[in-house]
Design brief:
Elements: H1 3-16, H2 20-36, H3 48-63, H4 68-76, H5 79-82, H6 87-93, H7 101-118, H8 126-137, H9 141-156, H10 163-183, H11 187-201, H12 203-219, H13 221-236, E1 244-249, H14 252-258, E2 277-283, H15 288-301, E3 303-304, E4 310-311, E5 324-330, E6 333-341, H16 342-350, H17 352-356, H18 364-375, H19 379-390, E7 398-401, E8 407-410, H20 416-423, H21 425-429, E9 431-436, E10 439-441, E11 453-457, H22 474-503, H23 508-517, H24 524-533, H25 538-548, E12 574-577, E13 583-586, E14 600-604, E15 607-611, H26 621-625, E16 628-632, E17 639-646, H27 652-662, E18 667-675, E19 678-685, H28 692-699, E20 704-712
Parallel strand pairs: 2-6, 12-16, 13-15
Antiparallel strand pairs: 1-2, 3-5, 4-5, 5-6, 7-8, 9-10, 9-11, 14-15, 14-16, 17-19, 17-20, 18-19
Helix pairs in contact: 1-2, 1-3, 2-4, 3-4, 3-9, 4-7, 6-7, 7-8, 7-9, 8-19, 9-11, 10-11, 11-12, 22-24, 23-25
């Protein structure tokens, strides 16, 4: 019997209680696979079946502690991809056995689809790759788990590969597989994949950082031992027994993730004690309330740092991670403390494996992983998740509180708009005003951890083009992009209708005829939108529709005649453009110089491109035929009312106006009155965007007591 096979069978019997008769199936599957892989070698020169297939099965059985079906799948995982074996052969292999051959064949087939997909990874986008990957593993989470075991073994054998393949493999690990390990809570494999991959990207830089960590850890061994004893004695003093205090030396990738330099090992240094060690307190109890009791004990022993407490028990993270995080000061050092129970520790390390290897496979928490897997199949969700990936897997930086006292996690630097879109897309699109900690504020204000935020929505969507400059999260960016594209398509439909009506007064029959000749594939709005954007030439449309009705039209002559004949001003319609709803850009040929006739424009790349009316637009007749005179719509202005309560001393108004001038904010009106014994100065500002940084600067000015700001309409002046 093969040594690895013996280890696998021994562990299956010990962990799951399989009988000798059940375990004979492992020998049967191993012999079946060996015949197909006879003589096949890996790049390292080792036997493929012995070195890889059985090693993956050993990871599944010993490390992941999964059952017989998963182990057999691991032994067979490369069979369909690398050999002439068929799914039917696998089904026949399990006839007369306790396992379902159809189920095993389906799992192996899913793994083969992933293998074929990996060959396309450089030919398709990240979003498309994730979408296809999720389609391959969506039927059963065990497919993902066995694939992770396959990737882990390949990563452990990384040093035997050529240098160029090491780097390629490392990038795929960091961008795809370590991310999936993080999403599904498999912390130990996430750390292992990240560690090996960072070494492959920059061996010298990785070794340099490891030496820094080792030297810093060695020089602080005595301090770590003292702190550990202090924590243990504090907990034992109030009745805690059987707990473990583990000083965890932070891995290289943990610091890089925190500092958002996942692939950049240059100029990374470890100098502070808090950069190096996390103290993990694992309680013997499984009662969550004991974590809060232990937190109180530690906060009495060490001085807690305000704003550095995170409760992942009452509000689980996306991967079901649970713990209490806090930072405290001890003498000159900052301590990173994590408090969790034994079960929380197991879930932190194993994630979905904890539920697959135990009897909790149908628990509500396990179903959360299934919902996460379903969400990853939707393209918009994938794009949002890929955005998190590009933020180096650190989506949570600040915690914001909703009016219902729910917690919302956002990246540092997020605004109220990010918060609104995180709650619901429709709320983000209708965010008209807000209050932060009970005070009126701008929806563009940058949030801080602990802020209480309430968003006041309008009755209709009020999102503007420039909002994209004030959002940070991928979900908000994607929602604003989809909304602006939807508005642009509506505008393109109106432009197409105006262009057609300008050429033919009664254009409805022509439009109906064109749709009929096209086979009814497109609706009237789609055809008008394509006319507006130039996807359908206006001249060709009129010619085709006119011939269909038996009419002889001017458009039967070549449109290229417009190269030699200037376009008369009356040959263009006039269309109102709302710059806040549709993007506007100037063309390089004439920079949109304004003449007495105004400016003209045409639609291209989700924007109105502005030209001088006399410009020939590069001699392109298709641009000339769909150009129009631009009439700028007069939109209702919004103002901000800034109210400053200040002491009665000289120079206060001057310092306020100087600060507003430095921010290039126009002051429309200034008034003052006395309120509660203090002068109250009111500034009407010609802007609707006043961020919190400006308010903080105003509050810090000498003599300023209180500052508030709110948006107002012209009627409220």
């Amino acid at each position: 019997m093969n040594t690895k096979t013996a280890v696998i069978k021994k562990h299956l019997a010990k962990t799951h209680g399989y009988s000798e008769k059940d375990l004979e199936l492992v020998d049967r599957v191993e012999a079946f696979t060996r015949t197909f892989f006879a003589g096949k070698k890996r790049l390292s020169g080792k036997d493929y079946h012995e070195d890889h297939n059985l090693s993956v099965a050993q990871i599944v059985a010993v490390e992941m502690e999964l059952g017989l079906a998963e182990v057999c799948t691991a032994i067979l995982h490369d069979l369909l991809e690398e050999t002439s074996c068929t799914p039917r052969d696998i089904v026949q292999l399990f006839e007369g056995t306790p396992l379902d051959g159809e189920e095993i064949a389906r799992l192996v087939d899913g793994l083969s689809k992933i293998a074929y997909l990996e060959e396309e990874i450089n030919l398709i986008s990240d979003v498309e790759y994730i979408r296809k990957l999720m389609a391959a593993i969506s039927e059963d989470l065990r497919t993902l788990v066995v694939k992770i075991a396959d990737v882990v073994h390949n990563t452990r054998d990384l040093r035997s590969l050529p240098r160029y393949r090491q780097k390629r493999f490392a990038v795929t690990n960091l961008e795809i597989w370590s991310w999936l390990c993080m999403r599904f809570g498999m912390g130990r494999y996430f750390r292992e994949l990240a560690r090996h991959s960072l070494w492959a990207l920059d061996p010298k830089g990785f070794s340099r950082i490891q030496k820094q960590i080792a030297n810093l850890y060695t020089s602080n061994l005595e301090k770590i031992h003292v702190i550990r004893k202090e924590i243990e004695s504090s907990l034992e003093g109030v009745g805690f027994q059987g707990h473990r205090v583990v000083p965890l030396m932070r891995h290289v990738h943990s610091h890089l993730l925190k500092e958002r330099h996942l692939k950049d090992l240059q100029n990374v240094t470890f100098r502070k004690f808090s950069d190096l060690v996390d103290f993990e307190i694992v309680l013997a109890s499984d009662d969550e309330m004991d974590c809060y009791k232990a937190l109180g004990v530690l906060h009495r022993r060490y001085r807690a740092i305000p704003g550095e407490f995170q409760d992942f028990i009452s509000e689980n993270k996306y991967n079901l991670y649970s713990a209490l995080h806090t930072k405290a000061v001890r003498l000159e050092d900052v301590l990173n403390l994590r408090i969790l129970t034994r079960e929380m520790k197991r879930i932190d390390e194993d994630g979905v494996l904890y539920f697959l290897s135990s009897k909790e496979a149908m628990s509500p928490r396990f179903l959360a992983y299934q919902e996460l897997l379903k969400g990853l199949k939707e393209e918009q969700e994938i794009q949002a998740f890929m955005g998190h990936l590009k933020d180096f897997l650190v989506p949570e930086e600040i915690v914001v509180i909703t009016p219902k006292k729910d917690l919302v996690y956002l990246p540092a630097g997020a605004t109220v708009l990010d918060f609104a879109f995180q709650i619901h897309t429709e709320l983000g699109l209708r965010a008209e005003a807000c209050s932060i900690n009970g005070e009126p504020s701008s929806v563009f204000s940058v949030l801080r951890s602990g802020d209480r935020v309430e968003v006041l929505p309008s009755q209709e969507p009020c999102a503007k083009v420039f909002w994209k400059e004030h959002v940070l999260t991928p979900k908000a960016r994607l929602a604003l992009q989809n909304y602006s594209h939807r508005i642009f398509h509506q505008f393109a439909c109106e432009v197409g209708r105006a262009l057609l009506a300008h050429k033919v007064e009664n254009h409805a029959p022509l439009l109906a005829e064109w749709i009929r000749r096209d086979g009814g594939k497109r609706s009237e709005e789609e055809v008008l939108g394509m006319l507006g954007t130039g996807e359908i030439s206006l001249g060709e449309f009129l010619s085709a529709a006119g011939r269909g009705q038996g009419k002889k039209m001017l458009w039967d002559f070549p449109v290229l005649l417009s190269r030699w004949f200037p376009v008369h001003r009356e040959s263009r319609p006039r269309i109102r453009v709302f710059p806040s709803l549709v993007a506007v850009r100037l063309d390089l040929c004439c920079q949109g110089q304004r003449s007495r006739e105004g400016v003209v424009g045409y639609l291209e790349s989700y924007a109105v491109v502005i030209h001088d009316p006399r410009c020939k637009m590069g001699g392109d007749p298709r641009l000339l035929e769909r150009s129009f005179f631009v009439e700028w719509a007069e939109e209702e202005e919004s103002y901000s009312l800034l109210v400053v309560s200040a002491e009665d001393q000289p120079g206060v108004v001057a310092s306020i106006t100087s600060l507003l001038f430095a921010r290039r904010i126009n002051i429309k009106r200034i008034s003052s009155k006395e309120r509660k014994g203090l002068p109250e100065i009111r500034f009407v500002l010609n802007t609707q965007r006043v961020d919190r940084h400006l308010l903080d600067e105003l509050k810090s000015l000498p003599g300023v007591v209180h500052v508030t700001c709110q948006s107002i309409k012209p009627a409220g002046l």
